Each structure stands twice: as C-alpha cells, then as structure tokens.
Amino acid sequence: MLAKTINQITHVTKWLALATMGFMMLFITFAVLSRTLFTPIVGDVEIVRLGMVVLIMFGLAYTQNVDGHISIGLLVERFPIKIQQFLDIFGSLLTLVITITIGVIFVNVGQMHRTEMPLTTDLLGIPFYPFDFIIVIGFILWGLEALLRLIIAIQAFFKPVNGQGGDT
Predict the structure, then answer these.
(1) Is residue 24 part of a domain?
(2) Alpha-carbon distance values, 73 to 39, 84, 86, 96 (Å)
(3) Cβ pair 166, 160 in contact under 8 A
(4) Is residue 38 part of a domain?
(5) Is residue 166 domain-resident?
C-alpha cells in the first residue's frame, strides 16, 4: 500500500517534470525567436531558472524509482552478493537520511522566505518561497523512494542465497 501510494505520487511528479520541460522548450524557443525578430522577453532567464528548479526537483524521485542515479557498479559488482546487498542497504539508508534532512531544512527556509526574509527574482519579482516548497516535495519524495529501496534491500539481504538456509 505504501509503495503503491509513493509510486503514484512519483508518477504525478514525473509528468509535472515532463510538462515543465515541454513548457521550457517552447518558452525558450519563443524567447530566442522574439529576441531575434521582435522585442526580447523580460525575465526569460529568471523563468527558465525557476523552471529548472521544478524540473529537477520533480525528476529526482522518478530517477530513484527507475534506479537512474549514478552508481559505482564496476567496483561493487566484484564483491560477494551479501556485501553488495549490505552496500545497497547502506546507500539507501544514507540517501533516505540526507534527503529527508534536506527536505526538513527547506521547510524552514521556505517559511523564512515567506515571512521573515522574503526573496524574489530580480526582474519579475517572483517570490522564491513556492519554489522552496517544491524543493521540499522533491527531496521528501526522493527520500520516500529511497525508503522503498531500503525495504527491498533489507528483504533481499535476509533472503537465503542459492538455497542456503531456510526450510529443508
């Protein structure tokens, strides 16, 4: 049930990232053409930078889901299977702790940017705090995907290998 819910949310954020990428593609094309043919769009760089925040943050969990993050398979594949499984557990646990920590920190950052220290983009005056909360969503969801990976890695670690152990 937990896995299904997390995967559904990841699926939604994947499509939000893809929609953002599509918007950015069209927007950048229009901005370049308008710079050449008409009047430049004011704040186009700011809009693209903020779009990159959305694109990256909503893509992190999906990348974790499909095991698309960088790994050191060349070295790890030479170890015995139990050591590989232990390293998977350690890596997933470390990812979980770091991503949840960053997510919690950015809750405070977003709150601070909303109330105490409002920050906006230079030209358009777009506030940063909504994007801080997008960062929270991205890292928390990445952490939840890492939690699913951790559970799978723990189950694999305690599962008998090649018929060893278990019922006879």
Answers:
(1) yes
(2) 50, 10, 14, 20
(3) yes
(4) yes
(5) no
* 39 in any annotated domain: yes
Sequence-ordered list of residues with C-beta below 8 angstroms from that of 123, at least 6 positions apart, any chain: 42, 43, 46
Helix (H) or strand (E) holding 138: helix 129-158
What CA dihedral angle connects 164, 67, 57 and 148, to 10 degrees? -20
How many structural domains comprise the chain? Answer: 1
pLDDT for 76 equals 75
The domain in which residue 129 lies consists of 2-158
Taking 3-state DSSP, the helix, strand and coil percentages for the chain, each rounded to the nearest 5, stand at 75, 0, 25
pTM of the model: 0.85
DSSP conformation class of 128: S
What confidence score (pLDDT) does residue 70 get?
Answer: 73
- Give pLDDT, residue 168: 42
pLDDT in tens, 114-148: 999 999 989 899 999 999 999 999 999 999 999 99
**pLDDT less than 50: residues of the chain:** 166-168
